[in-house]
Write a structure and sequence with these properties.
Rossmann fold, alpha/beta, globular, seven-stranded parallel β-barrel, 34 strands, 22% strand, 26% helix
Length: 688
């Protein structure tokens, strides 16, 4: 049986709150100022001040502030955003920034993000209020994007610096940067090179003056000059950034974690990881092949060429051996999303033997396995394929005809039973339906198959995959939560690099250049200036593009899996160059303390679910978090765990003694944290 895929190509004790207490880290030579320094700054106050764990963002509408807002949002750090363009905005004065709670002075923000060093203008009362606030409470400030000048601790660019385009610039973390907030990076911060299209990066490189410590620099004529650094003056400290960026650019994504850690002095709500998982769909099944003459895939509903028997793409035993070896060499695990029944059909049609299945089953412990249904049928409405595009079949009364609950449950159960017979380590709570069917499919099927949720309940499914290009937000389907997956532009119907480039040309070139013209009619697409050479285009153009897109997800704290198809591990094995580029580039960018996290489907789903609950608690104003001296307290609704990041060496107070807390990552420790059994509070203590 040849699988016909019509996917989008682009395509418990009850407590009222959790309490977290954290002691402050010691100040060591060369380290960033510790929390203890904050208490010292406010020592003149009648009582040690309370500092709320929230960031103040002053926004002028620029892309650099927007990028920092995106990082705070994606990480789970609470913030208040003041729009300078809003005539009715609050005035930033002493009362806005601080007050008194229970007789104790309170600083309402633990850090301040400004568009530049002084967006209010010279002599501004708001600038003076911020300066006094930062000095009194030891609050740090990030200047999101400014120019090199003495006011931020740098010489002008005409004194051994540079001003201009930075695309392709080989910036690097300095020794101070590695010892400070950017210790999770391996060294180089290579700016993306868009100079062949539209240059995107402009900035200033300046020589440091007294009080300025360079954290990231780049080569200039006669030496190096700074583009990120700290400027200490008048009892305040600013992080100065002198290049422009947006939330998607790699150079920002590399530095974003460190900027937040610096701003919050290493203790904040929220956490971040670099995730990368790859699902290989249709394992054991064959996939239909792209036809370059018809410019479609024979056997698909929208292809007039009819079936193309015997020309399908399927892995061989040698391909399976290579997959296992590749995994071992890269230290990376693939998720095999399997259709056992489709494999059994292929076996029956080919003499009753299947060397591929034998090899994969023999190597079963080396992979993760996910149920993809037994024979990969469409599990939504009953399709009427006599028309193009297809439509849902209706009865005489006009009601939609649906695939039954028993059919859906049977497809799930039969695949699980086959796996049990073969000893495959399958988690029955995970499911990927064929083409993500059963879930709503626009425009033909605007709602889920009403029989899907009962079938999921019957078979114990708790995590069902969805297509991120259609449904990027997790939602509930009966007893299950969706796990959106990123489709990779490595097509299901391509086994060779030439086929891949030919189909890519059809989609991404104009009609005048022999393409479909889809790119001209789609506002989210861009046409290729000239068609790719089918002999070289995959390696020279598509692989770098796809690796860049995948890395953007990896660096964006995005746990959503990516998905491809077994055909991409067959014949030319076109998936591996993309994965190799992602993993190799990542290894060059990050230190060993920041490995890629490779979650399985259920873990990605659980991460998204925790974030949804946390974001709602923040939006509803039901999280209270603050520090008083060396202790941090976090209160959240019952049942909501809080993501917390704190310095390495932090330990958790138990009923008797302490225990290691959190997971070490990127030089810190972090975890989703709630109260222990019989405790209404969680206390975390840092090493002395």
């Amino acid at each position: 049986m040849v699988k016909r895929n019509r996917m989008n190509r682009a395509a418990a004790v009850c407590v009222a709150a959790a309490l977290v207490s954290v002691a402050a880290p010691a100040v060591t030579a060369g380290a960033q100022p510790a929390l203890g320094a904050v208490a010292a700054v406010g020592a003149a106050a009648a009582a040690t001040p309370r500092i709320d764990l929230k960031v103040l963002v002053v926004d002028d509408g620029g892309s650099s502030v927007d990028a920092l807002v995106a990082e705070l949002t994606d990480t789970g750090v609470p913030f208040t955003r003041i729009d300078l363009r809003d005539a009715g905005r609050p005035v930033i004065d002493a009362a806005f920034l601080a007050d008194t709670v229970d007789g104790r002075p309170r600083a309402k923000y633990q850090g301040v993000v400004l568009p530049n060093e002084n967006p209010f203008g010279d002599g501004s009362a708001e600038a003076a209020a911020l300066a006094a606030y930062e000095t009194t409470y030891g609050i740090r400030q990030v200047d999101a994007y400014t120019w090199a000048h003495p006011g931020v601790g740098l010489d002008y660019t005409d004194s051994g610096g540079y001003a201009g385009m930075l695309d392709g610039t080989p910036a690097a973390v300095t020794d101070a940067g590695r010892a400070g907030p950017f210790g999770y990076l391996a060294g180089q911060v290579l700016f993306e090179d868009n100079s062949t299209l539209i240059p995107e990066s402009y900035g200033y490189l300046g020589r440091p003056r007294p009080g300025y410590t360079s954290l990231v620099d780049a080569p200039v004529e006669g030496g190096r000059a700074s583009m990120v650094g700290t400027y200490e003056h008048d009892g305040r400290t600013e992080l100065v950034v002198t290049f422009g960026y947006n939330r998607y650019q790699r150079q920002f994504r590399l530095l974003a974690r460190g900027i937040v850690d610096w701003l919050t002095q290493g203790v904040h709500l929220g956490q971040s990881r670099n995730y990368f998982s790859v699902h290989v769909d249709d394992v054991f099944a064959p996939d239909a092949r792209w036809n370059p003459d018809l410019n479609c895939t024979p056997g698909d509903i929208d292809c007039a060429g009819g079936a193309d028997a015997g020309n399908d793409i399927r892995m061989t035993a040698a391909d399976a051996t290579y997959a296992a070896q590749w995994q071992q060499s890269r230290g990376f695990t693939l998720d095999m999303v399997y259709n056992a029944g489709a494999g059994e059909e292929w076996k029956a049609e080919h003499g009753g033997t299947d060397a591929l299945a034998d090899r994969l089953v023999a190597d079963r412990a080396q992979y993760r396995w996910i149920n993809h249904t037994y024979t990969h049928p469409f599990l939504g409405c009953v399709q009427d394929v006599s028309v193009v595009p297809w439509k849902c079949t209706t009865n005489a009364a006009g009601a939609t005809q649906w695939v039954s609950r028993s059919e859906i449950a049977g497809q799930i159960r039969d695949n699980n039973n086959w796996a049990a017979q073969k000893g495959l380590p399958v988690d029955r709570t995970e499911l990927v339906t064929g083409e993500h069917s059963g879930l709503k499919t626009l425009p033909q099927q605007p709602v889920d198959n009403p029989n899907l949720a009962p079938a999921l309940a019957e078979t114990g499914v708790r995590w069902i995959a969805s297509d991120n290009s259609r449904e990027p937000v997790q939602r509930t389907v009966g007893p299950a939560q969706t796990v959106p997956r990123h489709p990779m532009n490595v097509y299901y119907n391509a086994g060779t690099a030439a086929e891949m480039a030919d189909e890519y040309n059809w989609i991404y070139t104009s009609a005048a250049d022999g393409g479909s013209g889809i790119c001209e009619d789609n506002p989210t697409s861009t046409c290729l200036p000239v068609p790719l050479d089918t002999a070289t285009g995959y390696a020279s153009y598509i692989v770098p593009q796809e690796a860049r897109t995948a890395l953007r997800h990896v660096l964006g704290n995005d746990p959503r899996p990516h998905y491809v198809h077994q055909s991409n591990l067959a014949e030319d094995r076109i998936l591996y160059p993309v994965l190799d580029e992602v993993l190799t580039t990542y290894g060059q960018m990050f230190a060993a303390n920041t490995p890629i996290v490779n979650p399985r489907q259920r873990d990605a789903g659980a991460e998204l679910a925790r974030r949804t609950a946390w974001d709602k608690a923040l939006a509803d104003g039901k999280v209270t978090a603050y520090r008083i001296g060396t202790a941090v307290t976090v209160k959240a609704p019952t049942g909501v765990t809080a993501p917390i990041t704190a310095p390495e060496g932090t330990r958790k107070q138990m009923l008797l003694g302490t225990a290691a807390w959190g997971t070490a990552y990127a030089g810190n420790r972090s975890a989703w944290t709630g109260p222990e059994l019989l405790q209404s509070a969680v206390t975390l203590k840092l090493p002395s």
